[in-house]
Design a protein that fits this description.
By secondary structure, this protein is α/β, with parallel strands linked by helices. It has a single domain (14-236), classed as Decaprenyl diphosphate synthase-like (Undecaprenyl pyrophosphate synthetase, 3-Layer(aba) Sandwich). It is 39% helix and 16% strand. It is built from seven helices and six strands. The chain has helices at 26-31, 37-54, 77-100, 116-128, 145-159, 169-179, 225-236, and strands spanning 17-22, 60-69, 103-108, 135-143, 190-193, 212-215. α4 (116-128) links the parallel β3 and β4 (135-143). α2 (37-54) runs parallel beside α3, α3 (77-100) runs parallel beside α4 (116-128) and α5 packs across α6 (169-179). The structure holds farnesyl diphosphate (FPP). Farnesyl diphosphate binds next to α1, α2, β2 and α3.
Length: 251
């Protein structure tokens, strides 16, 4: 079987909300229980399962999860190693469940710095789930939003015949997606971060231009289907104007 070919994906393949999550608080969750930080990450995987399962029922078509940032390489080697093992295990163990739920999984970010076993697990999981059409689950590994924009700019500059005419936003968006090795993706509707911090940490900067932001004190391993349902409800109560006037009041 040829695992190297990723079948194409269109932004309209997964209608519904695009929700992005910065999954913060695993370490604190573990420390509060006197456990090693890696126990928090393992528990974080359970929360991932819960929200992947809940997403389609909440009108979510695309779910982007920040699993490992390009800056996370600065963490102690043991923690990075444990996270890599966790990703590999998740990708291998989860294929059957994802296929049953008609979930398509793709991973975005740099691949060249990942251990070979993780790269192989990614390629296999992407291939095995390519027919999923209920939810597009996107996992960011070794990802940095600024690098995606930087690489996109360099690529565009090398390809354009007229550098004085900037690309349209739509065209540039496809360069940004390609730079992070991901299929084109709709803009983020809701960006939520757990763990109490209120920052973006270099996640999906271009794609989140008009995202609604939600910061929760809940630690990631404590996230449940209800947490996500409440987040989606909060999103629907927002008045999204995209720089225009309110659709509700016309003012
Ligand atoms: C941030 O919390 C979390 C991470 C750097 C890792 C996220 C990984 C998972 C949730 C598990 C694996 C995910 C998948 C998709 C298989 P932190 O460690 O910075 O927490 P702290 O701020 O409390 O220290």
């Amino acid at each position: 079987m040829d695992f190297t070919m990723q079948s194409s994906l269109n932004v309209r393949d997964f209608p519904g909300l695009h929700v992005a999550c910065i999954m913060d608080g695993n370490g604190r969750w573990a420390e509060r229980r006197g456990l090693p930080r890696t126990a928090g990450h393992r528990s974080g995987v359970e929360a991932v399962r819960r929200i992947v399962e809940a997403s389609p029922g909440l009108g979510i078509g695309t779910l982007s999860l920040y699993a490992f940032s390009a800056d996370n390489w600065k963490r102690p080697e043991a923690e990075v190693g444990a996270l890599m093992v966790l990703f590999r295990t998740y990708l291998r163990a989860e294929i059957a469940r994802l296929r049953r739920g008609h979930v398509r999984l793709t991973v975005f970010g740099r691949r060249d710095r990942l251990p070979e076993a993780v790269r192989m697990a990614i390629t296999r999981a992407e291939w095995e789930t390519r027919k999923g059409n209920r939810l597009h689950l996107r996992i960011a590994v070794d990802y940095a939003g600024r690098d995606a924009i930087r690489m996109a700019a360099a690529r565009w500059a090398s390809e354009t015949k007229d550098p004085s005419a900037p690309p349209s936003r739509e065209v540039f968006a496809s360069y940004v997606a390609a730079a992070a090795h991901c299929p084109e993706t709709p803009p983020v509707d809701l960006l939520m971060r757990t763990g109490g911090e209120q920052r973006l940490s270099d996640f999906l900067l271009w794609e989140s231009a008009y995202a609604e932001l939600l910061f929760l004190n809940t630690l990631w391993p404590d996230v449940t289907a209800q947490t996500l349902a409440d987040a989606v409800e909060a999103f629907h109560s927002r008045d999204r104007r995209f720089g225009g006037l309110s659709r509700r009041t016309g003012t």
